[in-house]
Amino acid sequence: MTLTPLVYWAQRHEEIYLRVELTDAQNIDVHVQESVLQFRARGHGAKGQNEYEFCLEFLSPVKPEVSHKSTQRQVNITVRKEQRGWWERLTVQERKPVFLAPDFDRWLDESDAEMEIREKEEKRNKLKALRQKEEGFVSLKTGFLFVYNLVQFLGFSWIFVNMTVRLFIFGQDSLYDTFHTISDVMFFCQILAAVEVLNAAFGVVRTAVVPTLIQVVGRNFILFIIFGSLEEMHHQPVVFFVFYLWSAIEIFRYPFYMLGCFDTEWKTLTWLRYTIWIPLYPLGVLAEAVAVIQSIPIFYETKLFSIPLPKAIGTSISFSYILHLYLVLMFLGLFINFRHLYKQRKRRFRTKKRKAN
């Protein structure tokens, strides 16, 4: 005797939905031929664990492609109508089969189905408009980041090339007038670098805020406070080494970011961007530390930026004491940034190696 499962149905203008009450269904066989759907499976139904089957001849033609999905409690079947429209009933027979019933969880009247279509269309239009807006924002962001990185690349390239050419032409003498020939462009580039902190803080780029802030603040402190405020430091050779090491790092970093704006990569540049900092970054911090140490006696003698204390005490705190503390913070910042850059490098090349495999 053939056992028939309970089947619930609902429709939309383009599809028929069937829900077969069969638990833990196995060996499911569903196919449509000449608008007749045949179902057969083994599972736990109204008569316990058995073979169940049924056959439905639809009211109108349907497409032969049928999809089904089995869950622990039921089998869901979707059949597409040959022509879009609303059927007055499911089967050719006016009298519906005894095992068939409306699926009230999905049941809609024709007017409600039309409203559902309109709601879906409105949702699609909103998503499309939102996507276009996001694409416009991405284009604007990409253009902004490309121009920013291009300007920084041109600035640091000018510094690096200018210093290199002067070193070959004037030799050791070029070390003593670096500040007067280079400082204006370096001031511009380092002031502009504050944008990188804002980009990280507001999520324009995906990078950590703290390491970026440490680098920008640290460089600007050396540039404006140590070099900019002390004339005695303008002719020191250490200025050359600080500026040269800074620019040597940036002439690889900024073009890497420029290519990244358009999801483009040059492998040699990528390797240099994630490797060149290993020797240059610690050397740069060492040169900065030398500059701070050379400035300490000058600040002590000139009492520049000294912090006045109340008259009852009658003295002031020399800025040179703060520089001693700053030296400690410099090497703490070196550790934080070095660790951050090392993690970036490890993550980058581990990801590339995984993709290659």
Structure, explained:
This protein has 357 residues and is α+β, with helices and mostly antiparallel strands. The protein has eight helices and ten strands. The strands form three sheets. The protein has a five-stranded mixed sheet, with no helix packed on it. A hairpin with a 2-residue loop joins β4 (36-45) and β5. The protein starts with 6 loop residues before the first strand and ends with a helix. 22% of the residues are buried. The model has no long low-confidence stretch (mean pLDDT 89).
Offer a concise description of the structure:
By secondary structure, the chain is α+β, with helices and mostly antiparallel strands. The protein is 55% helix and 18% strand. α2 (178-192) packs antiparallel against α4 (209-228), α5 (238-260) packs across α6 and α7 (277-302) runs antiparallel to α8.
Q: How do the helices and strands line up, and which of them pair or pack?
A:
Layout: E1 7-11, E2 15-20, E3 23-33, E4 36-45, E5 48-57, E6 62-70, E7 75-81, E8 100-102, H1 110-170, H2 178-192, H3 194-201, H4 209-228, H5 238-260, H6 267-273, H7 277-302, E9 307-308, E10 316-317, H8 319-356
Helix pairs in contact: 1-2, 1-5, 2-4, 3-4, 4-7, 4-8, 5-6, 5-7, 7-8
